[in-house]
Amino acid sequence: APEFLEVRGEVYMSTESFQRLVQQQEENEEKTFKNPRNAAAGSLRQKDSRITAQRDLSIFIFNIQQIEGKTISSHKESLDYLKSLGFPVADFYDISDNINVIIDKIEEIGKMRGSLPYGIDGAVVKVDSYAVRELLGSTAKFPKWAEAYKYPPEEKATKLLEIEVNVGRTGVLTPVAIFEPVSLAGTTVSRAVLHNEDFIKEKNIRVGDLIIVRKAGEIIPEVLGVKEHAEGGEDFVFPTKCPSCGSEVTREEGEAAYRCTNTGCPAQLIRHLIHFVSRDAMDIEGLGPSLLHRLADDKIISSPVDIYKLKAEDLSSMERMGEKSASNLIAAIEKSKSRELYRLVYALGIRHIGQKAAKLLCEKFLSIENIIKATAEEIGEIDGYGEIMAKSAQEYFSLPETIKLLDDLKALGVEMKPLEKKSEGGVFQGKTFVLTGTLPTLKRAEASKMIEAQGGKTSSSVSKKTDYVLAGEEAGSKLVKAQSLGITILTEEEFLNMMN
């Protein structure tokens, strides 16, 4: 064995382990991971290592970073050596000096997608000789001796069985394609969002058609279009009444979406409650969609206020809810009362106001009282806010029912502590960042928090005011625009070095 060995690898979760984890999360009414990559990253970031140990993670070692006591001259030699030491190394690697053989190997690996016990999205071609690598060198960001080939998303044809229309928390009616199940990127899918009426008309989609589906980014199922129209198929007619409550639906000028006009719509209520308790909002652990449905069906809750009126005895008599579970849930509800102000504002589900916009609103006005008093013009002064966002926030906080909701929550102990003004200083003080692509280890939300903690701020679009673009894999048009404007592009490693 060498005197010193440092290796680099990639932690992953197998498809089977991921499916088991999701099933367990659903049974416990917890928020589920969207894909194995997120599950692996989330498991590694757990503060409690016991949870990480339960997640059935695996690893492939793909590089020797540093070695003492042994000389290795090529990448293949390093992989063979790692394998001899017992390290898990990817099964599919080969060496050739013939470009046609290399292309065939890439295609061969690509054909394995979906049949492997884990997901893959590409193949990497590297120069084998370390001496030649030294001669080729690297750019500021990437080695010149390696190239990643990404496979195009797998596409399949399937029959469209029906178009279901769902109602969201803001009343938006969203059509969803229900089709015969197909296997894509290692999982079986049977549903995909069709966005709106215009999308259906543009693609000329009808029930019974043979449609083409794929997973965007290997994650989200989407309908690309129609391969073959069904004989005698009829155009889809968007409903004029809400499928949940039967109220009229409207489509405002300049918008693609239809909305239910009934604020008391049961579907909107459930979606709103799910959003209110979600991880990024009030983060009430244990109060999942299934339990919220049961509580709403039993007329126990009909608004966020009712959540804070719940007592253990209301819950313990419910099916699959014993005394301990009820007690834990009440404790989680109590804990949520002291969440940051921006989380509450985000939890309210204001149209056009996402988590980041809620945070900016709270940072500008510091207290809920100041937000209520603010004019649309004052709100519009926030960097990143447009006229529509400012108007939406101002109108929401001027509604009598909003004031009553906030008063009721306050009376039940929900804290609405004013924010303290940010202290000056930090390595990113006054700097504006734009994040794009998938970072190797950090989630975008984590990187944003780190930037803000150091006095910087993040923006969703690149402009001349942007100081840095933090770019990961599959960075798109934002990266191109930043390069054209001469803005500094940072890798995650460079970003972390600046932090340190």
Structural notes for this entry:
It catalyses: NAD(+) + (deoxyribonucleotide)n-3'-hydroxyl + 5'-phospho-(deoxyribonucleotide)m = (deoxyribonucleotide)n+m + AMP + beta-nicotinamide D-nucleotide. It comes from Candidatus Limousia pullorum. With 500 residues, this protein is α+β, with helices and mostly antiparallel strands. The chain has 5 domains: 4-150, D-amino Acid Aminotransferase, Chain A, domain 1, CATH 3.30.470.30; 155-258, Nucleic acid-binding proteins (OB fold (Dihydrolipoamide Acetyltransferase, E2P), Beta Barrel); 266-336, DNA polymerase, domain 1 (Orthogonal Bundle), CATH 1.10.150; 341-411, 5' to 3' exonuclease, C-terminal subdomain (DNA polymerase, domain 1), CATH 1.10.150; 432-499, BRCT domain (Rossmann fold, 3-Layer(aba) Sandwich). Helix content is 38%, strand content 20%. The chain is built from 21 helices and 15 strands. It has helices at residues 15-27, 36-44, 49-54, 75-84, 99-111, 130-136, 197-203, 266-277, 289-297, 304-307, 312-316, 323-336, 341-347, 355-365, 368-373, 376-380, 387-397, 400-411, 444-453, 477-485, 492-499, and strands at 4-12, 58-68, 122-126, 146-150, 155-167, 172-184, 187-193, 210-216, 220-228, 249-250, 258-260, 432-436, 457-459, 468-471, 488-490. Strands 5, 6, 7, 8, 9, 10 and 11 form a 7-stranded antiparallel sheet that branches. It has a 4-stranded parallel sheet with strand order 13-12-14-15. Strand 14, helix 20 (477-485) and strand 15 (488-490) form a beta-alpha-beta unit. Helix 13 (341-347) packs across helix 14 (355-365). The longest helix has 14 residues, at 323-336.
